[in-house]
Amino acid sequence: MSNTELLPVLESEAEPCCPPLDERPLTAEEAERTARMFKALGDPVRLRLFSAVASHRNGEACVCDISDVGVSQPTVSHHLKKLKEAGLLSSERRGTWVYYRVEPAVLAAMGAILTKAASV
């Protein structure tokens, strides 16, 4: 018998960051929010952590599975906090471990910005 338990998929409450760049000019608030997200991904350690979560099964990973990025555990925690503050990740504590999830609505909006801008 297995101790594996299927967990429910949680709906994202994150709001998309902004409209595609060719739709209309960004408001000041949209530009601030979008810049925060791209700035958070501008650090190589954060980008590796974000990629580790995004590529993990179901877009969710335990911090214990993604912390091997060449920096200390407190530094990993700092970078994960920055990704959460930028709205790119959310987290949930389960027992002693914290699980991180990619925020799909925000990721889709960022992808739309880049895809539309690239196709022009």
TrEMBL record:
The keyword Oxidoreductase does not apply. The keyword Transcription regulation applies. Transmembrane segments: none annotated. GO terms for molecular function: DNA binding; DNA-binding transcription factor activity. Residues 26-120 form the HTH arsR-type domain. Pfam families: HTH_5. Gene3D superfamilies: Winged helix-like DNA-binding domain superfamily/Winged helix DNA-binding domain (1.10.10.10). Keywords: DNA-binding, Transcription, Transcription regulation. InterPro entries: ArsR-like_HTH (IPR011991), HTH_ArsR_DNA-bd_dom (IPR001845), HTH_MetalResp_TranReg (IPR051081), WH-like_DNA-bd_sf (IPR036388), WH_DNA-bd_sf (IPR036390). This is Transcriptional regulator.
